[in-house]
Write a structure and sequence with these properties.
6-stranded antiparallel beta sheet, 5-stranded parallel beta sheet, 17 helices, 23 strands, about 35% helix
């Protein structure tokens, strides 16, 4: 939408609307930004222009937790290319550290059902998440004007306030220590005084300065649309069957969609839809190499006459290049161009469809003619003479991506340049605005490869401040001569099976650059079958080994769960591996869970519930 308001103008319209409601009813109060924050001195509400959202609340509810940035209950306003949107968000940690936070969590859970029945919920997080959160449904997903949206917000606001107040009233009777009430008129007046003082102070400081509007309001590193909920480099670690790979799908979908409350089915759909684009998934193994991951030479299998080698980018470099291009194009629309392959096929369409036998490419004083196009080269003939010549498609691609020919100087330059000019011209036409996006690479079984060898110089480059828009961006020259930098919008997620290798055995350099998130058997997860059996098996294992050798809860989950198949096909083989085929030890462990096994191979013979 071309008429989207600037961030502060959007805030101002919402603020004026809320103040008009306060003018009509002095008991109607809401929260405002209180502290000055660099770049947000003139903002009315908590939020950031780079994230394109802001929020307000209507209650005093002091229940914060590590990592929380706002209130437990918020009315959120957003803006995007699609227009304006809103929703009510209820958020609290699932691991409260004090009584106030425990009661806050219980209150929000008590509010969930009546709100779902009155206006509906758009998303609800599960108990397995670190954060308990749910969002209400808005009447429309997007609005073309703020005024139109505020009419619908008004229809739901009184309902939300009424539901929350009524539930809280009954809840506080049973839990009188909970601090929860509507923002008082006195406190609201203090909000207004602080807001006025902040704006006045900012105006006085800048009154004698002439500013030109610039896109460089924030430091370069703050322009990236980062997900504050997710580390830039993280590894989920734990024994087999604890849902590490399941979790990576969910995390990747959250990072690229921005939806922290997404459900798994939707996350899986987003994951599959973006696999090979914004998401890459790989599994490390013992033979995985730097050449597979970053870049290396590979034999040219299409050339049957002579053995040649060509440079091939690995999976990490490919997604890194896509992510970096996204930042650059979204930041500077003037350099935006359509994909090379699309433009190249558009140029060759008359030739490929047989409309013409030769494609004429005009030069300054003459022409040359493209006669045939292969997988790697273009054959052409000059205007004079019958000899055929070739141009490299890959070289043309590089020129197109750079926007100029700085690769071929002399020789075939007069033939590359006219084609490049045509492609660049076609590439600029009807280009859609590119939004800045996040990208994710998932490395399953990250500890199975030789990490130092595979990562190479990436060990340093993946640090947040060394990335493309970090405080000290660092480029390196690869062995091929290519320049390379890790973009700031590329997230790395790894999984590590602790039954294979302890964290202590990992490369120290790797450990310093990743956040490690433990995932061990969790009996609180919904959907586990035979919980007592699983608990007994793991207790028996812990009598002999440590937590890294326990049995994951996911082995005991699923609609088609069978105790016999699980024990025979999953648990027994895993225990035999853990205890080096010690048959007696495995039998003893399962006996502690009232499971009788025998024969060879070991199988479940009987069970006592």
């Amino acid at each position: 939408m071309s008429d989207i308001l600037k961030y502060r103008e959007y805030e101002e319209e919402v603020y004026d609307w809320l103040m008009s409601k306060h003018t009509k009813d002095s008991s109607f109060t809401f929260s405002l930004r209180q502290k000055k924050v660099r770049g947000s001195e003139t903002d009315f509400f908590i939020g950031t222009s780079k994230s394109k959202y802001f929020g307000t609340t209507f209650w005093t509810f002091p229940a914060a937790y590590p990592g929380s940035a706002g209130d437990c209950i918020n009315l959120i306003f957003r803006t995007s290319d699609k227009g304006y949107s809103y929703f009510f968000e209820f958020t609290q940690t699932n691991n409260p550290h004090n009584e106030q936070n425990e009661l806050a969590l219980k209150l929000l859970k008590a509010v969930e059902k009546p709100l779902d029945e009155s206006i509906g919920l758009d998303s609800v997080s599960g108990d397995e998440n670190k954060i308990y959160s749910f969002k209400t449904k808005s009447i429309q997903p997007h609005y073309s004007t703020v005024q139109q949206m505020l009419l619908d917000v008004d229809k739901q606001l009184s309902t939300v306030i009424s539901v929350v107040d009524n539930v809280a009233k009954d809840f506080i009777k049973q839990n009188p220590t909970l601090v929860f009430e509507r923002i008082s008129i006195e406190k609201f007046r203090k909000f207004l005084i602080k807001k006025d003082a902040r704006l006045l102070n900012y105006d006085e400081i800048n009154s004698d300065m002439n500013f030109e509007e610039s896109s460089e309001v924030y430091p370069a590193e703050e322009k990236i649309t980062k997900s504050s909920f997710h580390p830039i480099n993280q590894i989920f670690y734990g024994p087999p069957g604890t849902g590490k790979t399941y979790r990576t799908v969910l995390e990747a979908a959250k990072i690229i969609s921005g939806n922290e409350n997404i459900k798994y089915d939707e996350a899986l759909a987003i994951f599959n839809e973006n696999l090979g684009g914004q998401i890459e998934f790989i599994t490390f193994h013992q033979n995985y190499s730097y050449e597979d991951f970053i870049q290396g030479l590979r034999p040219d299998t299409e050339n049957a006459s002579i053995l040649t080698f060509e440079k091939k980018d690995g999976v990490f470099k490919r997604i890194a290049d896509r992510a970096l291009k996204n930042i650059e194009v979204s930041r500077n629309p003037a350099i935006a161009r359509k994909d090379f392959d699309l433009v190249f096929q558009e140029l060759l369409k008359p030739l490929n469809e047989g409309d013409i036998e030769e494609l004429e490419i005009k030069m300054k004083k003459s022409s040359f003619f493209i006669t045939e196009v292969g997988l790697k080269s273009i054959e052409f003939r000059k205007n004079i003479g019958e000899s055929n010549h070739t141009l490299s498609i890959n070289t043309l691609r590089k020129m197109y991506e750079r926007g100029s020919n700085d690769l071929i100087l002399g020789g075939l330059q007069p033939y590359y340049n006219p084609i490049l000019e045509i492609l660049l011209e076609k590439g600029k036409s009807n280009v859609q605005t590119i939004a800045e996006e996040n990208f994710v690479i998932i490395i399953d079984e990250i500890n199975r490869a030789n990490i130092s060898r595979v990562f190479g110089e990436l060990i340093t480059l993946i640090e947040e401040d060394k990335r493309s828009h970090g405080k000290i961006p660092m480029r390196v020259t690869l062995p091929s001569g290519d320049s390379f930098i890790v973009p700031s919008n590329l997230y790395i997620i790894g999984t590590m099976n602790t039954a294979d290798k302890s964290i202590a055995l990992l490369d120290i350099a790797l450990r310093r650059r990743f956040e490690f998130i433990p995932m061990y058997p969790d009996l609180k997860v919904q959907g586990i079958n035979d919980i007592l059996v699983l608990e007994a098996i793991n207790k028996a294992i812990l009598d002999r080994k440590n937590h890294d050798f326990t049995i994951g809860h996911s082995y005991f989950m699923g609609d088609s769960y069978s105790r016999e198949k699980t024990i025979n096909n999953k648990v027994i083989p895993l225990l035999l591996e853990y205890f080096i085929n010690d048959e007696k030890e495995v039998i003893a462990i399962l006996n502690q869970a009232n499971l009788k096994v025998g024969n060879w191979p070991l199988t479940l013979m009987s069970q006592n519930d």
